[in-house]
Structures are given as structure tokens and as C-alpha cells.
## 1
Amino acid sequence: MAPVVQRFKTAHEATAATEFALIAPLFVLLFAGIVEFGEIFQVYSAVNRLTSQYALAWSDCVDSPAGTCNTELAPYAATATISNILPQLKTSNLSVAMYQISMSGSTPSVTYSYPSNSTLTSAQTTLAQSTFSSGQSGIIITVSYTHTLSFFNSLISPALGNYLTPSYTIVALKA
């Protein structure tokens, strides 16, 4: 055998560097995946918590005198309020829709809404019809958030699709 080939076969000095070069990218990918999974879980939890807090606070509102609940509703959707409740969320990626409805037969009519003059979606109308009886009042709150990945966004986002946009809807009777 040629001396160069023989020397290459018995050399051990570069073994650690070669192993590191092969294993390091896998560790970086694993670390990035753990961080991303943690962020997505945190976003899902935060959106759920925000929706729940809005529902608890607003379902207890007594609309006496008329308009009290609408006045109470406005500060909940303010950017500063959301930033105080959930500082980890970017308020520009958040979508909040809140409705106070009253049922007349099987038709829900919106008493108050945020944003103003917005209407129920067909899914929200179906929820109201299946939850409330004629004469009952209730609330429907939907919070959605569009999450952006920190690592490898252009590669992974198309594969995850709707998992990056958590949305929660809560329907509750009005107190």
C-alpha cells in the first residue's frame, strides 16, 4: 500500500472533528425543534387563556343601564390590555371577535360586538343555535393568533399549516 493511504487508515487525530461535523447539525436541528415546539405550545396556551379570561369577565357583565357591557368590552380588546395579560404574543398577529347575542326563536341577534358592526360567521351562528334557547342571552368570543416560527420558517411553515394559527371560541350564557 502507498504510505499516504496507510497513514490515512491509521490516523486518529481527525476522528473527533469528523464525528463532530457529522453530529453537530443533528443537535442544532433537535435544539431548534424543541424551542419551536415550546413556543407553539406557549402560544396555544396563551390564546386559550385569553379567550377564557374574556369570557369570564364579559359573561358576568350586567347591562344595566343599557350600554354598560359595551363600555366594559372596549378595554379588553385594547392592545395595551392584551400586552399586559400576555406579553409573549404580538398583538398585531392577534384577532379578537366578541359578540353578545340574544336568541329570538332560533335566530341569534347581535346586541354588542367587537369590532363594532361585525357579524357572526356561519360557524358562530351554528354554535349559538345549538347552545342557546329562545329568549336566552349569551356571548361568543373567538380569539385567533398567527404564529411565526423562529427557526427555519420558510421550510417548516408550509408543512405545519393550520397548526401555526390557533383559534379558540367560547360560548357562554350571559349572567
## 2
Amino acid sequence: MTTSLLNSKYKVSDYTLWTALVTPFNEQGSVDYETLAQLADEQAAAGNGILILGSTGEGLALSESEQEKVVRFICQHQPSAPIMVAVGGYNLTTQLRWIELCNDLPIDAYLLAAPLYAKPGPVGQEQWFRALLQASKVPCMLYNVPSRSGVELVPEALINLLDEPNFWSLKEASGCTTKFGEFKNALPNVAIYSGDDALLPEFTLLGASGLVSVCANAWPKATQLYVSKCLSDPSNDEFGLWKEAVEPLFTVANPIPVKILMHQREQINFPDLRLPLTHKELTCHSALESANTSIKTWYSNQVA
């Protein structure tokens, strides 16, 4: 075990579910901190790790001062769960400064994304992540999400980073089982998490260690149970229900649908997002209502 893992407040490798937490806003468009605290506590009570300021948390739609305030607030709130903070953008100096700030706070892990828009090749990817890994004082999860970053991470670059003690895991969100298999073959000792809720059963058959989830925002306990059952029996036929239920959460850009669903469930006061995203993108909510009913029924039957 690496020194960084031992120094964490939590043993992050024990957490099989990390919720990519939404950032709730009030009617004026500012962060609703009271609701944010409630959401963090809800995830902690379900046994889930908490990822803040990721794409689901609209991190890049917040100003730097807002991002800092959110992180400090969550750390001061001290939910009974490990805290992972997203690191994403384009300018390396800015990202290193962000990590330096967060290193002084009780944070347990970072999610390191590829630089946006730049589309670096293997050498650039290796150098980018190495700089971030060396700046960090806690374990890091690298993030492959070509649909948002514009570039696929390549196994060759990540293999070269295995000498970095803070390289703990990888979030694979390309939506491709072949790509997952390539990473698992190249990085057999690295924990690889699914970044796609619906694909967890398929990824688990290939060796996934867990899930970084969107749907856990709406269904914290049910998703925790889903992950646990996937890891113990990924070939179970019941997961078809989950795949069908999760689909409405991605009919338009995340986190639009999940915020609408959470508003319907009265978990957040408003479904609002920061432009260019808007809840008005999705006008028909019947599929979300049906999904919610399906998951509630499934969970009730499981715990009865």
C-alpha cells in the first residue's frame, strides 16, 4: 500500500461507490449550501464516497471562488464519508494551484481529468498527469471521458505513470467495454471504476472495482445495493431493470435529468443549472417518473 493511501483519513480503496454529487442552486442562482449539506449527509448515510465539483457537480460553471467555497464548506461540514475533489480545466498552472490549495484541507482523493480541448497525445497525457500526481498529497483517480474532454486516454501513457505512488485508480467513462478491457489488461493492479451507471454489470465481469455514479444522487441507498450486488454477481438478470431505469438520466446532457428527478423527489428545492445547461432542455418528465417508480419498487423488494 502506498504512503498516500495510509495517510488518508479514509481508506478510499474500500469505497466501491462514489457519488458524483450535484451542486444545488437557490432561486437566485447561487449555491444552496443548506441543501448541499443535506445531500452530502444522505450519501454518507448510504455508505457512499462523495465526489464534488465534477461534471455532474457543474464544477467548471462555478467561479474559482465558488469552487473554493464549496470545498471548504464540505470539509467543514465533515460528512461521515471520504471526499474526492475534481481537478479539471486546461491551464496546468491553475490546476496545480488548485491542488496546492486543496492539499491543506481534509480531502481524501482527487479526480484528475485530461485537459479540455487540447487533445494531447500519449506524451502530453503522461506529462500532464505526472505533474498533477506529483503535486497531490492524496490518492488520485484518473478520468477517461472522451465525450467531454475531446480525447481518449491511452494505456501506454498510463502504464508510464505506475511509478507514481498517488496513482490509485481510473474512472473509465468511454462507454466502451473494449476500451475497459484494454485498460484492465494494461493496468492489472489499478482499481478501475465504471463511469457509466448502466454498464457496471458488464464492466464488473471485466474486473471493475466499483462505480462513480450519477444516479446515486437520486437513489443513494438503492445504488449502493446495486453496486454491491453487481460486484458479487454481475451476471444477475435483474440488472436489466437498472439499465432501463438509468437510460432516462442521460437523454440530454448530465446533470439536467438527475436534477429534475431530484427536484421531483424533493431532494433539492430547484432543478436549475448554470448555463449553457438548463432544465428547460427536458420538457417531458414521464420517463424519469417511471424510472423512479421502478427503482423504488426494486429496492423495496430487495430489503423487504
## 3
Amino acid sequence: MDSSEAIYYGFKDTEIDFIVSAPCDNFSKLIEMIDEDDEIIHVPVTHEEEGIGICAGAYLGGKKPAILMGNSGFGNSINALKSLMELYEIPLIIVISHRDSEEHTIHDESLMEESTPRILEAMGFKFFKPGNGEAAYTDIRLSRDLCEEEGKPVSIILDEHYW
């Protein structure tokens, strides 16, 4: 099972049926798999915070949502995560991908790569950092249980070595 398949099958096994995605090259294969699955609704968005609102609406409509985003856009969603998702106890799996800081030239991505775990800790949100596909599959399952128990988002951070 490769890195994208691990996430996909983790979603399937936890009955995630609504996935929002913000642009990130690392998710291209995963998004293809999601788009081919008739049991999952996929909504692409241009901004992470709008994706958070869409996930909230999907949850209130009976769906089990998740969102895919790059680390550089994670900062855009902080207010929506605290003032919407946590306030109203809406469970959500957030999959955050880090781009390879040695290969990309966008400086803000490497800054957010360093800051993302600290920001999640400060927000009181739990997260996992799987090092391979098998661990990611397991962490998706743990995240689903944890976010439902706690009524707030749980993140999976996929660092540059995961891909």
C-alpha cells in the first residue's frame, strides 16, 4: 500500500464520505482515487477556511467529513477551526501535507512546516505524524475515533518524507 492508498483506505474504513480538498500537489493521486469513488463526495476549494465551513455543513447534513490541505494554507483555517468546529463540537479529520522544504522555493511553506505542530498544540488539537503508509492508515482510524469522542478536529501531518 503506497502513501496515497493508505490515506484513501483509512478514509474508506472509517466511513468518511465527504472530502474537501485545497490545492496541493502531494494529494494528486489520492484525489484521483477519491474522484473515482461513487460513495465519497469530493468538493475542491480554493481556500482552506471555506473548506472548513463546507465540512461543517456536510457534518450537520449527516456526512462524515475530512479535509485535505497543504501546510502553507493551514494558517488560513485557524479561526474557522476554533470558532466553528470546536465551538460546535464538529468532528473533522484534517490531513495536512508538507511540501519538501529542500525542493520548493516558497519560503512561507517551510515556515509553516516548522510552526504547524506548535500551532495545533496551542489550539489544543491532537495530531499524528505518521512516517509511512501503514502508520497513516492506523492514524486515520485513531483520528476518526478521537475527533468523535472529543468533538473537535484531529490532524494527520504528513511531512516531506512521507510522500
